[in-house]
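Board work, copied verbatim: LPPG:FO 2-phospho-L-lactate transferase CofD/UPF0052
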Amino acid sequence: ERNASFCFSSVMAEICFFGGLVHYKAPSPSSLHYPSLFRCKPHHYSLMSASISAECHSSSSTVDPPSLLVFSGGTGFNGVVEELKKITTRVAHVLPVSDDGGSTAEIVRVLGGPAVGDIRSRCLRLSDESTSEALAVRRLLGHRLPIDAHNAKKDWYDIVEGNHSLWDGVSRPYRETIRAFLIYFQNEILRRPNDSFCFANGSIGNFFFAGARIFFQSLDAAIFLFSRVSEIPCDSLVLPVISTNDRLTLGCELQDGTIIRGQNEISHPTNGTIQTVDKRHSSTLPSKIKRVFYMSSEGNNLLHEVFPPVNPTVLDQLRSVDCIVYAMGSLFTSICPSLVLLGVGEIISSRSCRKVLLLNGSQDRETSGFTASCFVTAIADALNRTHGDPNIRLKNPPGYYINTLLVPKDGDIAVDFKQLSEQGISDVRVVESVRDPKHGVLFNPSSLINTLASLVE
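↓ predict structure ↓
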C-alpha cells in the first residue's frame, strides 16, 4: 500500500484540480516528460468543453467542417463513429449516466457515483489509432476481464501490478499514469471491506474512469483525463447529459400504471446474471412505455421522482451546432433520458437547424409494435415532458423537434408516411443497410455518414 501510494503521488504530482479546472504544470527537467498526454495546450485546461474545442480547432482551416450534437447511448451509434470522424470531428456526443447493468453496476454498487460505461465506450471509439502505442492504450482500456470470478481477479492483479502483457507497447509515462488511477481504484475498493467487489467481466476502462472520477471528485475531470490519455480529437466532446458525482436511477411508467425501477430492468432484465445482452429477444413488457424519469436512489419509494439539472455544456452546444441527431439505439433508455431534462426541449424547439432521427432497423423490448411515427411521438413527448409535471410541460408539435428521418433499407420498422406527414415530417430518406446476425438490420456506416454530410453541407 505504501508503494502504491508513492507511485500514485509521483505520477499525479504534475496534475492539480482546483474548483472545476484541471491545470497541467510543466514538469521540471528531472521529472518525467509527457510528450502527448496533455497536447492541446501545455499549461492550462478549462473543463468547459466549448473552450477546449475552440483552442484545439485548426486556425488554418478556411471552411469549418459541420458541427453535430448526437444524443445516443453507449452502443447503438458506436458502429458509425469511425466513419463520422472522416467527415468531421466537431461532434458533441451526449450520453446518459444512468446505466445500471454489467460491470458498471458493480462499480456503482460498491463505490457509488454515476454510471460511466457508456461514456467509456464512446471515448474508446473516438480514441487515436494512428500509432502502435495508441493502439496498445486502446487495447488496454478496452479489455474485459474473464467471466469466471477467480480468473478475473487474477487477471486484474496482473494488470494493476504492471505484469500483464496488455502493457506491452505502452511507454512509461502512459503506463504510470494509467496504473496510478487503477491503483487508486483498487485502494478505494479495499477501503470498503464490507462490500466484496466482483471483478468478473469487468472493464479496465471503467475501472480507470472510476478511479479518476473519485480522485478528482468530478465526472468532467475524469472525462477530460480519459480523453487525453486515449488521445481523442480535441474538438470531439464526450458529454454526460448530467454532470454529477451522485448515483442516478432511471425509472419508467408504463401505460397501465406500472412503475419499473432501473435502466437494466426496463431495457433487458438479466436477473443479476452475467450474460450476453440480446435486447431484441428480451421478454416483452406488460404494457407500452409511457414515459421515463429520474428517481431517488435512496430507499425504495418508487414514487420519489427527482429533477437533476442538465449539463450546461450540453445546452451551450445545442445552441450552436449545425445539426442535432437522435441516434439509433434503445429509444427509452438511451435517447429519452437525455431529452426529458429541463431546458433541452426549449432550446431544440427554438433552433432552425437540421434535426435528424436515425430510425432503428429492428424492434426491441422497449419498442415492440412501434412504427416510425411512434418513435417520433416518443421523442416529442420526452422533449415536451408531456406525461410529467404539468407545470413544466411544453406543447410543441413533433415537427419542432424532428425535420428529417433517415431509415435503414429493408428495416423491420414500418414507415407510416401519412402519419409522419401529419406530424410535420416530410423529409424521409432511405439509407443503405447491412444485416447483422446478432443485431438485425443496421445502417451501412459509410452510407449513413455520407447522407448526414449531405444534409449539413
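The chain has a mean pLDDT of 84.
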